[in-house]
Amino acid sequence: MTFKRRSFLKLLPALPALSFISKPEESNVPPRISMRFIVASDGHYGQPDTDFKTFHTDLISWVNREKMQKGVDFLFFNGDLIHDDPTLLYDFKNTISNVSVPFYVSRGNHDKVGLDVWQSTWGYPTNHSFAKGEYAFVIGDTSNEKGEYVCPDAKWLKSEIAKYSDKKGIFVFLHITPAKWTVNGIDCKEVIELFENTPNIKAIFNGHDHDQDSTKIYGKKPYFFDGHFGGNWGTTYKGYRIVEIYEDHTWQSYQYNPTAAPVLNSFTGKS
Prior knowledge:
Helix content is 24%, strand content 25%.
């Protein structure tokens, strides 16, 4: 059949409409990650009868791989950096200098060093905080030079948290959990009530309990555990926790086993 030019021209006005009708719907693009960090705890550098050097080499390798594959803004060591002997702190610091991301630390009950040594080693005290963009990170001390379990300084926490009242979110790091919901936790009622009554506190991260890698909830606040990457007891695997904050201010956290690669105990937080 011959297709005449006049017939073709009659079709032209309809073509834009056809194009409009057939236009596919725009896909829902997930929000992009604006910040991503790792929390690891209880490496116990120098603990006798453990392969502590390999534990730390492995963690450094895992974090550097995360940095290359998905990006990591910083790493947080949530206590028990070393195992009792204060002279190990320099060796620990020298070892982790091979990690390719900025890192921060908190003091655990096995980090039996004085406040002056801690300050001179890290450049900040055991109670400290920092901010990155729209988020703040507050670190409380839960031990002392003797290695005793102590509640964090509630007065200091309240004052420090108040400095960040304009931030979208605050994340808190405490080596020892401030609730007696684990064998090794301690009851710090004033502290957990402070957290519960501070709207922009998003989550609290705890170490210390090597056998805990889950999420516990007090009121509306999640408390995250990250197992361990060193030591001689705890979860059957050595791992760490990931936190991803998105551009729409939602966020998620999950535990990660880098040798088997499963995502464990995922939690999604609101803006």
